[in-house]
Every structure is written in structure tokens, then in C-alpha cells.
């Protein structure tokens, strides 16, 4: 069944203006005009972010929707996929988000708009922990693009957390997956988007 609704979730300090998000938005607009694509600005609070996302996709057809997430967005995408049963594409997904972000409590500038700041509160670490998926179900629903050269997250942890999934492990590359354009066709092909 073709995917008609696609959710894109950005990473920590990121936004819908990220390079990968914009690439996906542009390609979907050009080649899949009938696909509903939503790339929301996620709230700093994980609980609030996921509540708003679940509210936003409440009317979406579960069997024809998919989610794509990068870094922290990949952590969220895994939770969404397990809640809804939809297909998921994960781009260097955070696996232990509560552990990794515990040291980020404080005020941060937004990556794409440095004049905009947000507060990452200590309580958000517990909210992240509550969204953890100890093990994925039905790995055939997942595609993971993992870079061995990721300077932020450990590619071995990512690979171990997503056994038996579609996708590839890139030799080198980086956390941003700078050459994402080379894999965009493959990623969107896995999602089988409606024309």
C-alpha cells in the first residue's frame, strides 16, 4: 500500500529548516504532490513534542503513513512507529537519548536561527526516558541509515538497536550525513510514496 502521509522529525536544536528536511520537502513536492508531508517544529519538552505530534497525525491512515527522523528525531520516530505500526526511516538515530542529553540541560541557541534560544530542562531527561523503546518490533518496517563517522552518536549502538532492518551502514560520513542526497532515492523508495 502506497504511503500517502509522511511525518519528518528533526533533531535536537534543529528545525524544519535542516538540510535533510528541506531535501525531503523539495523532493516530495516535486515528485509526490499527493503525499501529505508534515515537518513540525518540535517543542523542547519531549512529552509535549510527542503529544503535539500524535494530535497532529490523529486523523492519518495508519496503514498509509510513515515517519522519518534524524538523530533525536530518529528516537522519536521509533516511538511513533511502535505506537502506530507505520514504516519508519531513521537517519543516525539517537538510541540512548536520555543518557546522551542529560549533559545538555540549560539554554541553547537554535541551530538554524541562533538568535532564537530554548531551555532544555532537567525534567526533559525523564520525559525522554519514558519514550525509550527497549527493542523494536517488526524490523522489516524500518530503514536505518547509519554513519560510522558520526561524531555525535556511536554507530555501533545504532546498529545493535536496529537489527534486521533495511538500510545501510556508511563507511565514514558524519552526524549530518552530508551526502544524504546520494541516498534520498533509496530512502524514499523504501517508503513507497504515492505518485
Relevant terms:
globular, 7 helices, 19% strand, alpha/beta, Rossmann fold, two-stranded antiparallel sheet, six-stranded parallel beta sheet, 195 residues
Low-confidence stretches: none
How does the helix and strand content classify structurally?
alpha/beta
Q: What is the typical, i.e. mean, pLDDT?
A: 96
- The number of distinct β-strands equals 8
Helix content: 25-40%
Rg of Cα set: 15 Å
Widest sheet: strand order?
2-1-3-4-7-8
Give the N-terminus to C-terminus distance in angstroms. Answer: 12 Å
What is the string of SSEs from the N terminus onward?
A: EHEHEHEHEEHEHEH
**What CATH first level would be assigned?**
Alpha Beta
Helix segment tally: 7
> What do we call the CATH homologous superfamily?
Alpha/Beta hydrolase fold, catalytic domain
How much of the sequence lies in strands comes to 15-25%
CATH topology type: Rossmann fold
Largest sheet: 6 strands, parallel
Which architecture per CATH? 3-Layer(aba) Sandwich
Morphology call: globular
Question: How many domains?
Answer: 1
